[in-house]
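Minutes, structural biology subgroup

Action item carried over from last meeting: produce the structure token record for Amino acid permease (Flaviaesturariibacter flavus). EB confirmed the sequence was re-checked against the source entry. Recorded below for completeness.
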Amino acid sequence: MAELLVEKPEATIEDTSFKRSLGLLDATMIVAGSMIGSGIFIVSADITRNVGSAGWLIAVWLITGFMTLTAALSYGELSGMFPKAGGQYVYLKEAYNPLIGFLYGWSFFAVIQTATIAAVGVAFAKFTAYLVPAFSEDNIVLNLGFRTISAAQLLSIVVIVLLTWINSRGVKNGKLIQTTFTLTKLLSLFGLIAFGLILAKGDVWKANWSDAWNLHHLNADGSVAPYVTAAAMGAIASAMVGSIFSSDAWNNVTFIAGEIKNPGRNIGLSLFLGTLIVTVIYVTANVMYTAVLPLQEIASVEKDRVAVAASNAIFGNIGTVVIALMIMISTFGCNNGLILAGARVYYTMAQDGLFFRQAGTLNRNAVPGLALWVQCIAASLWSLSGSYGQLLDMISFVVVVFYMLTIVGIFILRRTRPDLPRPYKAFGYPVMPILYILMGLAFCTLLIIYKPEFTWPGLIIVLAGIPIYYLALSRRRSRR
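Output recorded by EB:
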């Protein structure tokens, strides 16, 4: 990467090369669509194993939803101050220094965005296999000796390449897919939830909620293991890894600020509306799970596919087809939003001389074409690696650390740059931002203590960016 770095002036003014063609609905659909992938259909099984009760299952989703909404409302202030492409990368650079911004951008490219795209792509393929078994992850099409490649991985790459090509043709194409697929999956999810609650099984509901707040570990075989007080807090933090991953990517809309109409108003509003819609869906979906499935079944369902089991309980055998179609729609739309937004971060980094030089240009369709294809290659490699799932568990810690740093940046910028226009100010400042920071610190501290395997690999990825940054600076200076 470093060989292609050249010195560029800092992107401190609003980029006017992009076409502002995305309205409030489009921005809201990017928020909601990027958040809802495959997580809500799967991670509740692991959460249930960690907390062992219906009440704490819902509490984990409520805590995560509150944190997400609080962070989104805080980001509204930053998006109004810096309404240009790059989003969180720009906020961190402006609040702290270029190194902190680069470490976020590096982590974003190395794993956060690209591995997420890969994981969502493979999830699309896995559920396609319910309808077309040839695309199963068990169908090995190539054995390289050191690595096997499945049909699911190849289909994932095809989807990633297709969506990259569509988005390289202009933001309007990506907008159409995003809005259409997100509205479809929102309506489908609301429909599934409604049917599940209407057809709720009274005996199942009563059994699940009769001892709703007894926090314990629930094993797949039905046995339980109680927690001591400190370990109970660690269990809640471990459970939240899945819910935070499922609720992530809400900030993707900030990356495309240069293409949103009236960004000072619409970005903040879309962050609030999108995260609120998704939080309501996630909480009510889990309430529905507890209304149709015994808690033990939620914890032990095959391959953690809770939504498949719930759909079968609601619709019978056709339920597998129903949920497969829903997840295909959900993951396809989710990946479109991730691909569309992610490339804008690399574009802004290249404008600052901290990414491939050519990625800092727009193609004839006024989108960062090369940045899109570089992202496509990285995500495709993650699809082939088969390691993205473990990495995604590990980056929940890193993601929350960067969210906390960004929210602390609000306090820093109010002190260091009080004269910058703020068309929107963080809701509940300073109480709400401080509350998020405290909750984030508690989450990260508990993971460090009780689940270090979720923390140190992510930190290594972040810290690996430090020598790359200084190598980039030395290359830049040598070109002067």
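Discussion: The first strand starts at residue 140 and ends at 143.
Next step: EB to file the record with the rest of the batch.
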